[in-house]
């Protein structure tokens, strides 16, 4: 997947940010250089069917860090100060009141940001290339025009408001896999449906049969594409449908099989159930397979939790204890897949096999069964510390280990499993993107995007819609949520570092630079402050 950068500020119809899998990644963007690469990921292969996270892992994981759980401001609160509202997928925030490729950030659909000074008069700024520039919080300028307005009652703003992403949730949208669903710019007539869906009559007949079937095997015998599809009516009538244009809706008339869809709501009309996509297209719900939500999350290292610890990936792993004869034996109980346990740091050898002592009294685990995470002995920031400043943040990722640790200086504060590139580490002389490897080295966060739609470079019909909490660190490579799988700790992605949705949201809030309230995307320029370092190794 090639990764064209987001369009220049001021383009009439900006293209969506995209994902990458084939192209040579660009070098990390320096603070004030050319605009950074768009948020991207690497996954040409059709996503595998997701599985539910292990319930035990969900129960064991601690609650999210308090900094993560702040709710989005209410609509009433949003009206207390003057704001500027996005009317497009990209409403650019520029560093000055003039058009530039070096944008600072952008507002997204349904988004708005407070005006600096609190009033229209205080924020209005003379400038070039726009009749009405407004200074926004905490920095930058937005042009009020085709893409943005200061009128909260603008018809486009009012129509978009109920569909804004849920930024207080790990799942800003509802997500599903397409089985070859068309996208309609308006609610289609039966004739328009027949024109876009060549198999419509057969498909609807199969849907009726599948609704009466008793189980997945019976549905599979009718039509395998209907297994996992939610065939229940929404029970909601069609809302008022607004005629959005190209600044809101992507120019795409179909989402091919294996691609993903982000949507905001469902309703019943024209004898079918429909969803409203994130960019205000309409798609038949009977051609979408919703993704189960992974409940996995990592460990905040506080309240007695510390490294070393062990996670368990791929499958359940047996617990061991020392028997009466001094040999180790299975207890009959197991650590559930994606569970974790603290380690004491001590090991025993039973024959040739090392076993690790856990913090569960008398319980051991085979070393080969555990993903062991230990604290780093030194920081990549050594020699760069300023004692008068807050602790510097950095992230360590092990590609083959499948884990991530977040640090403040040398203090580990969070640990979790991640899914790096299915190609492992790069081969000498071969770009990481060509083998779906995750690049190794020292990088920095150079862009943060609340959601971003990722498009394959080898087949631009393949998309992952509105991937959540994207943090670019090396050209097309990023840390980001993955709502389409639950294989944490395993080599899975096209080269990016996949996090569970819950972890992705937590890391997005924790890393520097912070994304200002109301912004949907941020370029990590000097004005944004220092960036979190990302250190990736085997």
Question: What tags apply to this protein structure?
Answer:
538 residues; mainly beta; L,D-transpeptidase catalytic domain-like; 33 strands; globular; LD_TPept_cat_dom; transferase; cell wall biogenesis/degradation; transferase activity; cell shape
How would you sum up this structure, described in words?
This protein is mostly beta strands. It folds into four domains: 55-69 and 376-537, L,D-transpeptidase catalytic domain-like (Beta Barrel); 75-162, no CATH class; 174-290, no CATH class; 308-373, SH3 type barrels. The protein contains eight helices and 33 strands. The strands form eight sheets. A seven-stranded mixed beta sheet has the order 2-3-32-28-29-30-31, covered by helices on one side. The radius of gyration is 25 Å and the shape is globular.
Overall 3D geometry? Answer: globular
The CATH architecture of the largest domain can be given as: Beta Barrel
Distance between the termini: 24 Å
What integer is the average pLDDT?
88
Largest pleated sheet = 7 strands, mixed
Radius of gyration: 25 Å
Q: Give the CATH class of the largest domain.
A: Mainly Beta
Q: What is the structural class? A: mainly beta
**pLDDT < 50 stretches:** 1-78
Strand content: 25-35%
Helical segment count? 8
The share of residues in helices is 10-25%
Largest beta sheet: strand ordering: 2-3-32-28-29-30-31
Q: What is the name of the CATH superfamily of the largest domain?
A: L,D-transpeptidase catalytic domain-like
* CATH fold topology of the largest domain: L,D-transpeptidase catalytic domain-like
Q: How many domains is the backbone divided into?
A: 4
Tally of extended strands?
A: 33
